[in-house]
Amino acid sequence: MVTWFWQRRRPAERTLKVRSRGDYGDVQRVDFAELAPDIDTFLGQAAYLQLGYFETLSALIAPTPGLGDKESISRAAAAALDKHQSLVALIRDRGDDALEVMLPFREPLDAFRRATHGARPLETMLSVHLTAGMLDDFYLALSASYASTGSRVAAILGRSDNRQALAAILTDAIEADAQWRSLLSLWGRRLVGDTLLIARGALRPHALDAAEEKRVEPVFTQLLAAHARRMSELGLDA
Question: Which InterPro entries does the annotation name (predicted)?
Answer without folding.
Answer: Ferritin-like, Ferritin_actino
